[in-house]
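FAQ: What does a ligand-bound record look like?

Like this one, built around zinc ion:
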Amino acid sequence: MRIKVAPSILSADFSCLDREIKKVESAGADMLHIDIMDGHFVPNITIGPVVVKYISKVTRLPLDVHLMIENPEKFIDAFVAAGSNMITLHIETISASAFKRQAGRLKKKNVSVGISLNPATPLAKIKSVLKYADFVLVMSVNPGFGGQKFIPSVLPKIKKLRLMFEGSISVDGGVNDLVAAELIHAGADILASGSYIFCAKNTKQAIERIRNAR
Ligand code: DX5
Ligand code: ZN
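The answer part, i.e. the structure of the complex:
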């Protein structure tokens, strides 16, 4: 599988977001990871659909929108209308039957759908929805903030998931060039990374080091 790198704009300088996005786009990013936080599901607040809409105007990169919010069903349509190409929902915030329904709706709109799970949530919780998901986003930190340390106990989880799921496996949290090799070996093919990429002196090199890690 080709490895894709998804810079997470949570670690970008939001006072010049346009420039920051173009920086990662020209450095070879495959998609843009956008973290949506509501101060309820996670202890932090970020941005809503209005900002996503303006982001979609300044980049050609697919928008990978990670919803860390309670009652995500209320907001899916607004994020789709804002230009999201990929929407990730957390299993901690949605029932299996609601996920199935939303996945069907998103596929009709040509938006790919992912299911995410926190480090403490076992794979058993997502088993029944895997057949409706295009990808799984495995959290490798407790969601809420960029710049946290990668939790290595997710590696066996990824290996196990790889054996039961054929779609893409994305990993998010604490990803750098060192853990990337282990993640790829475990079966991940999309690597989201915020602070490592946005704080790097050489953005292109940082993205390539993640993509080519083995
Ligand atoms: C964490 C977010 C991540 C975060 C990753 O809640 O979902 O996408 O921005 O940032 P780093 O790579 O710095 O851990
Ligand atoms: Zn994220």
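Follow-up question: can I read anything off the structure? Yes, for example: The radius of gyration is 16 Å.
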